[in-house]
Amino acid sequence: MKMSRVRRRAGGWNISLFEERGGTDRRPLSPLHLRITFLTGRCENHLMADGYTRSGGLSAGTAVAFAVGNMVGAGVFVLSGLMVQTAGPAAVLSYLLCGILVAFTGLSYAVLASICPGDGGGYLYAHHMLGPYPGFLAGWGMYISVTIASAFVLLGLGIYANRLLGTAFDPRIAALVGLVLLTLLNLRSTAEAGRAEVALVAAKIVVLLLVAAVGVINLTPADFTPFFPHGTGAMLDGVAMVFFAYLGFQVVAMMGGEIKSSARVVPLATLASIGIVAVIYCGVEVALLAAHLPAYGDSSLFDAAVVFFGGWGGTIVAIGAIFSTLSAANANIIGGSRVILTMAAEKQIPGRFAALKGEQPANAVLLSAGVAAGLILLGNLGVIVDLTNTVALVSMGLVNISAVILTLGHRPVPGDRTYFRIPFGPLIPLVGAGSCILMLVTLPLPVLAAGGAALLAGTIFFVVEDTPEGERATAEIREFIEREER
């Protein structure tokens, strides 16, 4: 059986995306792989990491909708104007470069997702490739980032609702109402949540594409002059600013167990969602430049809509923003609950969080909603949002390292497995890991310290002994999963 890494062949590189291998041949394990199996306590000679899969009812289109819905939120409705303020016309390049950097990590997710299908995403990959504790750090980092993000965008829902209705209510009221509704939706059915996500994403994309199209029509070459009004350094600072806006692509891998043919769909949905969102972001930035606003800030998209469409333009964007925040929060709640479910089922955190009600991880959904509610009540998420980038970069870095080990460690895949292949061996995941490290070292020391504290706090869950009730819950979830797999 040939290895999953790409090999140099006569006539060029073999860069086919999916390939099936058969046979029973096993190559000798590399010293690196022997070291990995020693650290993880496993002596397997091939990767048999199916993860936790249940109904597998979500289609490829729904998977893309979840990822796009998770990414297209505050990153476009609020951050787009701030980006023009920071980098000028070069903001378009900032979004594009950041999308390319994230795509390197997306390729690491793609190859690992095709070999390790199931709920959990980065946690599942790091757990099987690096060991239990690195896997825990990857999963906990993802969970913290998506939970903070759901609270952040729901507070945005309250702000946009006030603009639409002309009211001045506390934004936390609308945020909590939205959280309750989304929680009830996710307790009912993943399929129903998926249908709602597709509808919400479609609505906001129509609004954004309409604004972008009118902006492109009105664009002139002079709108890009000067391209670097604040220097190339401002453009690079912008790359770090918009990183948060791309994090949502992870949600597809987090809920892989819910997706039909996840080994094939998750990689393609991950890469497709990054590409779609990059086009939307760049299109909106072009529209803002074409609007010739006197000043740019967090409400510039509203102002641009008024310029292009008149008084009702702001109403359209406000409605689109409400759809955007709801869909992003919905995707975050689902993704976070799936990570907690998988970690609890594998005894990485107390087993009571693995309990299912029907086919839904009710306790995991309620945990995610409870944490988000607490953050919403705090109201001021300025410092906490900075933590998102820190913990997310740690998590994504571990996923990239897992992909590097997969390619350098010569770990074969099962003979009947269809897997995603990336070209040039470990080069792409190495670039992905390097970009994560580079962005980490540019963060302020207090933020890095706070992020480390958040990861350390989660370690308490990792080391604490479970209760008898939790042990019973873990046994029940494992029995349920085994029945579903049969």
From TrEMBL:
The chain crosses the membrane at residues 63-84, 90-115, 136-161, 173-191, 198-219, 239-256, 268-293, 305-329, 364-385, 391-410, 422-441, 447-464. Keywords: Membrane, Transmembrane, Transmembrane helix. It is found in: Membrane. Its main location: membrane. Pfam families: AA_permease (PF00324). GO terms for biological process: transmembrane transport. Residues 64-445 form the Amino acid permease/ SLC12A domain. GO terms for cellular component: membrane. The keyword Transmembrane applies. InterPro entries: AA-permease/SLC12A_dom, APC_superfamily. It comes from the Archaea. The keyword Membrane applies. It is a multi-pass membrane protein. This is Amino acid permease.
